[in-house]
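Our preliminary data section would be incomplete without showing what the modeling component actually yields. Below, a chain of 380 amino acids is followed by its predicted structure, encoded as tokens that our downstream tools consume directly.
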Amino acid sequence: MNQKPVVILLPYESCSGLELFGLRFAQDLQSRGYSVKVAAPAASLIDKQCQARGLELWPFPASVKYNINSFPACLAMLKQLDPSAVIAFRTQMMYPLHFASLVSRLHPRLFLFYRIGVGSHWRKDPIHRRLFRHFSAVVPNADYVGDKIVRQWGIDAEKVVCIKSGVDIGRYRPDPERRATVRKSLGIPDNAVMIGSSGRIHPDKGSEILLRAVFAPDGPGNRRDDVHLLYIGREYKPGYADHLIKVAAELGAEKRFHIMPFRNDPESVYSALDLFAFAVTSREAYAYVVLEAMASGVAAIVPAAGGMPEMYDDGVEGFFFTHNDQASLRQTLAKALSLPAAQIRKMGDAARQRIVENAEWGQMMEKYLRLFKKSGVSGF
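Predicted structure:
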């Protein structure tokens, strides 16, 4: 098929949901016969993921904000790989990519998959207008973000192509056997109510906020021995998980708060949940972990902020609470926990159905492939 590689540019030390999406995207392209390389720091978490997934790494220095080292790295990458397309995931990489393309006189199709932030920065100055002319497309994954980009960036509206995230519904699915296995490993009865959250365990992700909302003296799980809370993910710095465990003990919930470390098979845990809750403090564009939980048949509780209100209907597949409002979060958790188990399962079934109909991974990939073909990426 395509001889020139598509480069997935992930020059970060972290391996959060954004990077995991990029790796899954690279895997899909590779499985379709396209040549793919992941540009990321050697010996990083992303490097380890590439090895586990059979992806080829192109060593690229870690880039934080506007690192001057990114320009020579981009220049070397273009000259040595001569890629058909380069896909960046953060706006900071637009600048070195653009100038490296000009200097090298190599012009691969450039794409920005805008999957972090909400397009709030004003980018209508002459420099940005010129830069955006050289990008094939900016691809947000929420209409909310796409609308802001059109208003606030100096880019032609037809180059802003919203493609909402998709989920592998075969991998992420309801599974009674998985549910029983996970609950048994944690010592949680099947009739207990388990709230879960996945991704980085970090203050900005609302990890301590959610813990306190559930188990504080005025929290809906404080006097209910049948309510458990589970976090799945990597702590953002050593000792933070221990801090949360200490908080849980202070709230008298040490036996009902559980942490599982980062794993490559989060789908094996989602089925054990009854509710998925996300108390993130920033305005998420579109939280992929919420889609994973919904595909697994779990009703969600997330803030009505950013692009997340586009994910489901309030009271049907889950509930929304007011962003950065802990009283609203507690009230919404209390509303969900007051429902009969059968009603919670019904909402989870509706969440699964919504993903099947509107957010299946294969449907999403077809939209990307059509965009690449329309943009003139060779081999597509």
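The chain has two domains: 6-166+360-374, 176-358. The chain has a mean pLDDT of 94. Preliminary results of this kind motivate Aim 1 of the renewal.
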